[in-house]
Amino acid sequence: MSSSLAEATLARPKREPAFPVAAVRARFPALKQAAPFIYFDNAAGAQAPKIVLDAVARHLLEFNVQRGGRYPQSVEVDRVIVAAREKVAAFLNAADPNEVAFGMNATSFIRLVSLAIGQTLSPERNELIVTDLDHHADISTWQELRKTGATLSWWRMRDDHRLHVEDLIPLLSERTRLVACTVVSHALGSRVDVAAVAKAAHAVGAELFLDCVHFGPHAPIDVRAWDCDYLVCSGYKAFAPHMGFLWGKYAVLDRLPTFREEFIPDAPPHKIEAGTFIYENVAGMAAAVDYVEALGAELDPDAATPRARILAAMTGIEAYERDLSRAMLAALGSAGATVYGVSDPDQVHLRVPTFSFNLPGVDPAEVVERMAAADIGIRDGHMYAPRLMERLGLALDKGCVRASLVHYNDLSEVERFAEALRAVAAAA
Ligand SMILES: Cc1ncc(COP(=O)(O)O)c(C=O)c1O
After folding, report:
1. Would you say 407 and 24 are in contact if contact means Cβ atoms under 8 Å apart?
2. First-to-last C-alpha distance (Å) of the chain
3. Ligand 1 centre and the CA of 140: distance in Å?
4. The ligand 1 atom nearest the CA atom of 104
5. Looking at residues 144-167, what average pLDDT do you find?
6. Where, residue-wise, is CATH 3.40.640.10 in the chain?
7. What are phi and psi of 179, to 5 degrees?
8. Of 34, 138, 153, 258, which is most buried, counting CB atoms within 10 Å of its CB?
């Protein structure tokens, strides 16, 4: 081959394989078991693949003991935890597995970090910035710090239902201690340019706390590229059992004042993990990363490292979910729904397939009940985002309807959703 032909061959983009959604679905036993039920409430918790179910069951059967013992089962628990940290570190692109701490859920980690940050406030640097797009878990605990001298500013979303970094910049000053924001809205699906947020926050010496709970299942996380300081995820939104994990830059976690018993090392991750966490669910989280890696190996057989396979999987998921988003926007439009968040089908790169909407003249609860009768699981209410409901002009006791998809959902399910929703709208 001539060198110019070789270059042209190298330069040619690889042909994107079609997303193997049928094979993906076959790996999630719950989907088959519940059929014809459609899981469109994934933002509240996703289903787990068989490899995760097996890992949890195996852990409970073979290693259901406390770690730190000298007998084989206990040694294995320690090994599982170390391996899980390595896998989650690859999932996040963390520099060091010891930057990953395991625990109960995202809310308790946000609380833990906020209590620690509260102890580091000074009269010169006591300002916190929160957003009106966030889940209340990433607002209320920061608000609580006002009792101990913090002041709070609101980074408000624009009328396009997105946060714009240009609006954050005037709020930042050398008094800003921390910005807390989401990576993507769990209610509207709007994405945030978190790398730009980090740059702006760091320019004034502030830290960035990211709520990555809703983003976790949708696209690649890269804590190094984003250059955030803290990031929290819930395993149960990302195909693992109920558990959560916190990541922080090692030096940042190292200087964080946290509660621990005096015999626990004052170093990450142990200083963040007081008490026993749920080891079988940590084993399940590690298996969820294995699931992602296996998908990545199928999508890109040349991906040679765990991180490369994770990246291949999550990039493939992200691209496939854009198709789902376009189909959902068409479905919602066909039923006459009012969609909150990015609704231009040419702008789906700015969102994930999480859709909050209302049908004119129909109570959200009624929409959801009727859809449940049609074997479709969606959710109504305030989505744990009272500030956001207020911004959208929605009553807290009614809120909106949310349909939230992940990569195991498919276009035939969107079609059934569209038909059922049109029937609800027509009956109104
Ligand atoms: C964006 C977001 N942040 C935080 C939380 C709270 O997570 P957890 O249930 O793990 O405490 C949720 C849960 O729905 C969420 O969607």
Report:
1. yes
2. 67
3. 13
4. 10
5. 97
6. 54-289
7. -110, 130
8. 138
Q: Single out the residue of 293, 365, 253 nearest to residue 86, CA to CA.
A: 293
Cα Rg of the chain (Å, integer): 22
What pLDDT score was predicted for residue 17? Answer: 63
Query: What was the pLDDT predicted at 428?
Result: 85
CATH 3.90.1150.10 location in the chain = 21-47+319-427
Q: Pick the residue whose CA is nearest to atom 15 on ligand 1.
A: 213
**Predicted confidence (pLDDT) per residue in 361-414, tens digit:** 999 999 999 999 999 999 999 999 999 999 999 999 999 999 999 999 999 999
CATH class of the region 21-47+319-427: alpha beta
Lookup: tokens for 130: 């929160």
Of 3.40.250.10, 3.40.640.10, 3.40.630.30, 3.40.50.1820, which CATH number belongs to 54-289?
3.40.640.10
* Predicted confidence band of residue 16 (pLDDT cuts 50, 70, 90): low
Mean pLDDT computed over every residue of the chain: 95
Rounded CA gap, 328 and 334, in Å? 10
* pLDDT tens digits for range 343-353: 999 999 999 99
**Short-list 296, 300, 291, CA closest to 310:** 296
Short-list 424, 215, 218, 421, CA closest to 324:
218
CB distance 213 to ligand 1 below 6 Å:
yes
Calpha distance 11→16 (Å, rounded): 14
Q: What is the pTM of this model?
A: 0.95
- Which residue out of 186, 352, 383 has the highest number of ligand 1 atoms within 8 Å of its CB and is therefore the one to mutate? 186
Cα–Cα distances in angstroms (integers) from residue 398 to residues 297, 381, 393, 421, in the given order? 44, 5, 11, 18
**Ligand 1 in reach of 162 Cβ (< 6 A):** no
